[in-house]
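Quality-control log, excerpt.
Job 1 of 2 completed; input and output follow.
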Amino acid sequence: MAEENLCEHLTAITEVKIGDEYVCEECVKQNGTWLHLRTCQTCGVTLCCDSSPQKHMTKHRFRSGHPVMASAEPGERWLWCYEHEMMREY
């Protein structure tokens, strides 16, 4: 997707944050499990994806209003804007 077609949230990301540890912070607290991880680009929290039982990243998005997350999966290099439902590879 051309840069000019991206939303302001995705074009504002100049440095992608990925969590230091490969864990969902909320699942660890709740002794839960996750499938894939995502890192919030506003606050840096790493949480589980919508394929995971608790869907912590989406819950975080709606509680916090933070619009963009990045895949924290090894080998994946993409961002997602919840507000505009747009993806950007980096």
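Job 2 of 2 completed; input and output follow.
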Amino acid sequence: MQDKISKSEQEWKEKLTPEQYHVLREKGTERAFTGTYNNSKKHGTYCCAGCGTELFESNTKFDSGSGWPSFFEAISPENVELETDMSHGMVRVEVMCAKCGGHLGHVFNDGPAPSGKRFCINSASLNLNENND
């Protein structure tokens, strides 16, 4: 992984939309079934909306029915950080961008083969770099 980036909260507010800021910097979430990429079938690489780090490939995306874009694996384990999240009276595993520390979503152990993982990610935390594959 590349060196971590650090910005002031004001710099983040200037760079991100209000929704992106809420999700990435305040650990918020978008409402289920409302995100841009929830039903997307476009091909490409999903990158962090905060810093551009490549996070997920479209060929790892699947329809989990959860209301958020879901992926069964990250492009590289070094591009995401996982941390125990005990907020909201639950114990979950938070997924963050390893480069900028932005909150992406959570990962669960109920995904498809080959990983058995479901990275449940907010659309607001992502940008899709499309390709024509």
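Post-run check on job 2. The chain has a mean pLDDT of 94.
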